[in-house]
Amino acid sequence: AGVTRVVASMEDPNPLVAGKGMALLRKQGVSVASGLLQAESEKLNPGFIKRMKTGMPWVRCKLAMSLDGRTAMASGESVWITGEDARRDVQRLRARSSAVVTGIGTVLADDPSMNVRLTPEELPGVESSAYFRQPLRVVLDSSLRVPENARLFPVEGSVQVIHSRGDDAKARRLREAGADVLKLEGGLDLPRVMGELAEQEINEVLIEAGPTLAGAALKAGVIDELIIYMAPHLMGHQARGLFHLPGLEKMADRIDLRIQDIRPVGRDFRISATVAGE
């Protein structure tokens, strides 16, 4: 084709192919350079890059809270903390994720479907349904309490239930309902769970859960990015907090965050943050 020079932003991090394309071009006499805007390029595909380099997926944890940091009323009521624009933004987060993870507590309390409810036409960069598939929906459920008639099962897409001590008969019924049931001996250690998902070629994980699982994931060090939607209202001191983090008793115990981005989404704000030092 007469091409004499090629500039790539970055090399493919997959060790099976990394640099081979560039080497082939150089062998044919083409001048090749890489590294232009590499940091910006890496931000486009953090999950694949992290999985290739570390064997773990990129994990986001999405939460919604009031201005005073509350996620549910004391009664447990938590429907529609944020507005329609923020909820639509969450749908886009789901759509870009390879898997959406929640805990059994959320399933029993809210009976969520956890699927993407936007059409392909409403998703930037997706031109038709041929380029879109539902993320894997994962429930962490140590003793297999998830009901066989949960809303997860009838909707399009795959469901995986991960447990550690569930009954074999219940596991069989869940498989009949359409779930892939995976048993991890010794408990649901979160780094191990994320490693298992990476083995399934899951690049980007979105955790949508209550304060218990969110706090456990934060303490386990598996969260790469926090996405917090903050609504302009107050829910009071008796309402439930954002994270369940026992053991933080002194100022020195605080978990420092680094704010990466804050922007309005409708009448709410979306805060993107990482854990400082990670």
- Within CATH, the superfamily of the largest domain carries the name Dihydrofolate Reductase, subunit A
Output the strand order for the largest sheet: 8-7-6-5-9-3-10-13-12
Task: Give a quick account of the main beta sheet: strands, pairing sense, barrel closure.
Answer: 9 strands, mixed
The ordered H/E elements are EHEHHEEHEHEEHEHEHEEEE
Let me know the number of strands.
13
Overall description:
With about 280 residues, the protein is of the alpha/beta class. It has two domains: about 1-45, no CATH class; about 45-275, Dihydrofolate Reductase, subunit A (3-Layer(aba) Sandwich). Helix content is about 25%, strand content about 25%. It has eight helices and 13 strands. The strands form three sheets. The chain has a nine-stranded mixed beta sheet, sandwiched between helices. The chain has a two-stranded parallel sheet with strand order 1-2. Strands 4-11 form a two-stranded antiparallel sheet. The longest helix is centred in the first third of the chain and has 13 residues, at about 85-95. The protein is globular, with a radius of gyration of 21 Å.
Could you give the topology of this structure?
Elements: E1 5-8, H1 20-27, E2 31-34, H2 38-44, H3 46-54, E3 58-66, E4 70-72, H4 84-96, E5 99-103, H5 104-110, E6 136-140, E7 159-163, H6 168-177, E8 179-183, H7 190-199, E9 204-208, H8 211-220, E10 225-231, E11 240-241, E12 257-265, E13 268-275
Parallel strand pairs: 1-2, 3-9, 3-10, 5-6, 5-9, 6-7, 7-8
Antiparallel strand pairs: 4-11, 10-13, 12-13
